[in-house]
Each structure stands twice: as structure tokens, then as C-alpha cells.
UniProtKB/TrEMBL annotation:
Swiss-Prot/TrEMBL keywords: DNA-binding, Transcription, Transcription regulation
Source species: Halomonas organivorans
NCBIfam families the record matches: HTH_metalloreg (NF033788)
UniProt feature coiled coil, ranges: none
Family matches, as InterPro entries: ArsR-like_HTH, HTH_ArsR_DNA-bd_dom, Metal_resp_trans_reg, WH-like_DNA-bd_sf, WH_DNA-bd_sf
Name under which the protein is recorded: DNA-binding transcriptional ArsR family regulator
SMART domains, sorted: HTH_ARSR
Amino acid sequence: MLEAFTALSQATRLETFRVLVRHEPEGLPAGEIARLMGVPHNTMSTHLGVLSRAGLVVSRRQSRSIIYRASLDHMRETLSFLVRDCCAGRPELCEPLLEELRPCCPPSEDPPA
């Protein structure tokens, strides 16, 4: 867990991770991430390496490009670690946090029949 926090403690890596989360599940090629972030390709490569070693991003080769994706499972584990036992037996203490997370993840609606 500490490696994930260390990786996200740097502003460019944190924003890179956030960009990748917004582009789930397709992911983005490394060059496109660098362009979106306004960061030189070699610098972005270093940042992506740190995020990858921390388990926060995964990559796959697609033709000549490497496509990066956020590891949502690792993000979920990290968030769970942060809030585990946050309520200390009093669920009402965590309710404000849960309410804040709901707008970013609206429930999927069933398609009309």
C-alpha cells in the first residue's frame, strides 16, 4: 500500500492516474497521455513506470503502441484500506464519505424494455 501512496504523492503521477481512470476501460497510449498532460514522452514513461510498479496502472501492447489503463481493482483496494474501520462501529460516521462517492459512480440504469 505504501508504494501506491508514494506513487500518487507526486502531482503529475496523481493527475496521470486520474486521466487514466477517466479513460476506462479503453485506456490510452503513452504518447497520448504525455500529450494530454503536456509532459515530455521520456518523463511520462518514467511516471508510468512508477505507477505500474505500484500496481496502479496496467499496460498491454497494441501494435506499436503500449496502452495504459488504471487498475481499478488496486484503486478499490487502496480506498478500502483508507476507510477500513473508519466508522469504529458507528456507521453514521462514514455516511458522509459514502454520499460523496456516490455522485462519481451513479448506478447503471437498465435499458428500456
